[in-house]
Amino acid sequence: MSSQPLLPGSATGGQQTTLGVMGGGQLGRMFVQAAQAMGYYTVVLDPDVISPAGLVSHYHIKTDYLDELGLAQLMQRCAAITTEFENVPAPALMTLGSARPVAPSAEAVGIAQDRVKEKAHFVRCGVPCAPYAVIDSAAQLAAAADDLLPGILKTARMGYDGKGQVRVKTRAELAAAWDELKNVTCVLEQMLPLKAECSVIVARGWDGACVNLPVQLNLHREGILAVTSVFERNVPPALAERAVAAAKSIAEELQYVGVLCIEFFVLHDDSAEAQALGGLIVNEMAPRPHNSGHYSMNACDVSQFELQVRTLAGLPLVQPRQHSPAIMLNLLGDLWVNGAPPAWDQVLALPGAHLHLYGKLKASKGRKMGHLTLTGATVEEVRATALAAAAFLGIEAF
Ligand code: ATP
Ligand code: MG
């Protein structure tokens, strides 16, 4: 990309500067909203005719991700293009990248969408990850070390929200799990004693400038993010510092441009694994804004989606500042099970409650329909309102 930023709007009253996004899910929707707030026009490419992002974008190209005409139209309309999900086909990003600035690059997305390449990258960066073995043949299955059990067998590609994963205790279970996953390439990871999970979002520009959001403390339920808490000392400061440094080095090594989220495990201090691995383990990365960063829309002076716009357009990156402690609750389809919408009126009567719904027409179990962020003056206040909101919504206390 040239050193000239793509400034929003148009001085001549001619064509508006337009930014594109591959994928029309909720992350694309919030990117589009941030871009529009700054004066850009937007284009979404997603085959789904009523996608969350397509519903709010100036243009929606309703073709498959590899459709040549669709991609040509996207390139023709947009000055730069980003992605909102890591499983966008790499050849599509390569095509786009040949004619337009694309961030993150096809190469970076290609690494993040394959657990084998992703782990090799972490090893290259000297950031410890869970002990693992690549399984892509019966011989490798037989040769997997015993100390990886109990473990989790994860498909190398296309997993999300805990899908494409099987927990295994014995070699017999391992063999059955690999069959269940249709013998595709997998990684077998040792099951680690988790004390907590956290994540760090960094944004890196074309010029190498890199900023970060504060460390997010994440609670998962049934493999899906349920609650993210972000305030001073949500994790010990020394650990937070290490996590931020690791995230930045992972982005730097990739020459990454865009918003990148790195997920970490924190191990129990006294466990043998923590002694051996150093307590902080990198889990995986997402080459895009992340569910755990949604609180930044209401609790920080720059959101992760504005960071995505700024990195893509080559605008200056300024270190974000969190101005309020925050707790985010994910709103899953489970809340709509009896058909009626949840009690938003009660929830919105709470101080510092920020409701975000993604415009999805059908609720189903585990489907991310929206999120609710609670902000306040103190951690105690935010905890109290978040627990009250959870009680109104029937979300288990945390
Ligand atoms: P998402 O897309 O939601 O981030 P995913 O499907 O890519 O999830 P992972 O992040 O690999 O899956 O794992 C989902 C959850 O399973 C983790 O957040 C963690 O709670 C648990 N988990 C995964 N790997 C391990 C491990 N090696 N030891 C212990 N728990 C693990
Ligand atoms: Mg994960």
Explain this structure to me?
This protein is α+β, with helices and mostly antiparallel strands. The protein has three domains: 11-102, Rossmann fold (3-Layer(aba) Sandwich), CATH 3.40.50.20; 131-190, 2-Layer Sandwich (Dna Ligase, domain 1); 194-393, D-amino Acid Aminotransferase, Chain A, domain 1. It has helices at residues 26-37, 68-77, 90-99, 106-112, 115-124, 138-143, 171-180, 237-253, 272-277, 296-299, 304-313, 344-348, 379-393, and strands spanning 18-22, 41-45, 59-61, 80-83, 132-135, 151-155, 165-168, 186-190, 194-204, 210-212, 216-221, 224-230, 258-267, 280-286, 326-332, 353-357, 368-375. Strands 9, 10, 11, 12, 13, 14, 15, 16 and 17 form a nine-stranded antiparallel β-sheet that branches. The chain has a four-stranded parallel β-sheet with strand order 3-2-1-4, with helices on both faces. The radius of gyration is 21 Å and the shape is globular. It starts with 17 loop residues before the first strand and ends in a 5-residue tail after the last helix. Magnesium ion binds next to strand 14.
Number of domains: 3
- Total of helices: 13
What is the CATH C-level name of the largest domain?
Alpha Beta
Q: Which small-molecule ligands are present, each listed once? A: adenosine-5'-triphosphate, magnesium ion
Order of helices and strands: EHEEHEHHHEHEEHEEEEEHEHEHHEHEEH
The second-level CATH architecture of the largest domain is 2-Layer Sandwich
Percent of residues in beta strands:
15-25%
Global Rg: 21 Å
Low-confidence stretches: none
Largest sheet: 9 strands, antiparallel
- Termini separation comes to 45 Å
Helical residues, percent: 25-40%
CATH superfamily of the largest domain: ATP-grasp fold, B domain
Shape descriptor reads: globular
